[in-house]
Write a sequence for this structure.
């Protein structure tokens, strides 16, 4: 009996070990962010490369697109139709464009206002573009100089953390706006009682 129960507990432990990866897949946001993190780690092998057309110029090739041989294939990672990430890579620069989830009209307005607020302060972020790529809400541009000045892991962590926090911020804004609207409506309706 003792051997049998020990064997049975070992089998259960082994079954739990096999099922553990499936439990980690329960959070689709985590999988989405891990996929983006892994893609950014692979794509952030940037090096200094001067412009081939103009001497002593070093422009981000992902922006100019003057030499197709210096561009890599863009990677599109979608969580769903409303939430996606486009990663475009060249030899000396990397552009990350994000489409933020906007489930309803209120979230659409809040996301636009919040992302516009961030875009106005693009200098403070250093890697944030003022104008996003067409069809996306916000874009980041990382050049080889950013990779030399900052740690690559910290840049990747910043972008992934930004993506994680933007949903939370918009949800909190929506909740606070709904709460405030409810309070204003109750105060207004108290006049008629």
């Amino acid at each position: 009996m003792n051997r049998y129960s020990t064997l049975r507990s070992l089998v259960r432990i082994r079954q739990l070990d096999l099922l553990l990866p499936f439990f980690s897949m329960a959070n689709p946001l985590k999988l989405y962010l891990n996929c983006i993190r892994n893609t950014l780690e692979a794509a952030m092998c940037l090096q200094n490369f001067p412009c081939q057309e103009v001497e002593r110029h070093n422009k981000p090739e992902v922006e100019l697109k003057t030499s197709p041989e210096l561009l890599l294939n863009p990677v599109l990672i979608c969580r769903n139709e409303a939430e996606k990430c486009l990663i475009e890579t060249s030899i000396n620069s990397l552009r990350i464009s994000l489409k933020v989830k906007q489930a309803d009209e209120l979230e659409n307005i809040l996301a636009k206002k919040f992302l516009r607020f961030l875009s106005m302060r693009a200098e403070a972020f250093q890697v944030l573009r003022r104008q996003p790529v067409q069809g996306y809400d916000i874009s980041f541009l990382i050049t080889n100089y950013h990779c030399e000045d900052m740690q690559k892991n910290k840049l990747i962590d910043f972008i992934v953390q930004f993506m994680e926090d933007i949903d939370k911020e918009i949800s909190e804004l929506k909740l606070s706006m709904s709460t405030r609207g409810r309070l204003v409506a109750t105060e207004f309706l108290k006049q008629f009682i």
Helices lie at 2-24, 28-43, 61-64, 105-120, 122-125, 144-149, 152-189. DSSP finds seven helices and four strands in the chain. The beta strands are 75-78, 84-89, 93-99, 138-143.
